[in-house]
Design a protein that fits this description.
With 247 residues, the chain is of the alpha+beta class. It contains 10 helices and 15 strands.
Length: 247
Amino acid sequence: MKKFFSCLLLAAVFMAVPALAQKTYVNGIDPNYPPFAYVDEKTGQPTGFDVESLDWIAKTMGFKVKHMPMAWDGIVPALLAKQIDMVDSGMSITPERALKVQFSTPYWTVSRVFVVSADSKLTPEQILHSKIQLGVQRGTSEANAIKKEQLEQGYPFELRFYDSAPLAVEDLLNGRIQAALMDELPADNAIKMGRAVKKAGTHGQPDQFGVAMRKGDKELHQLVNEGYKKLMADPFWQELQKKYLNK
């Protein structure tokens, strides 16, 4: 009888000990950058190609992830201030950013395009050399590149900055700007959603997307790289492309 009660006591102790808690990482995202990352209007929850990719990686690699929407132009400072742990949200790998953060292995390549209204006759050359209003999302690689190019080449257009690519599209449709520069997939998403816009042509070199992390965070860097390697070898990678990127 004493042995029986001892076994019961031992079992109770093991049941009371919680399982090892999984580590939780916070991913900063642009709240309005479809199809890669955005907050769903119906559910109020973060979603998109990058969000679902990282959710799969977290489940596979044994950690938890929380997606935190925030202003894009403050997302790298938030990462450096340890308010978030990574940025998996369609972030282009640039030399300027690489001075401050470390990037994962690139997981996607995307071209930059000019977007104009559906009935516009503007060409890329006309956009660059005309006195028009050109919209771009602040804090993006394309914003930094076109601003630098304008200073170097003396282009006459007026740059207008927006919190997101969809907001630039809205002003394009309202006639407040005549063109916008953005990554190709957000432009494709606007067209898919029935916005009366079209792509007028590409500009500059394609960007490679990577996950930004703090320098020295070797454990997370390894988890993310290994996670993407596993994801790209899994059928779910193709499912995500079909769902979000029309691939």
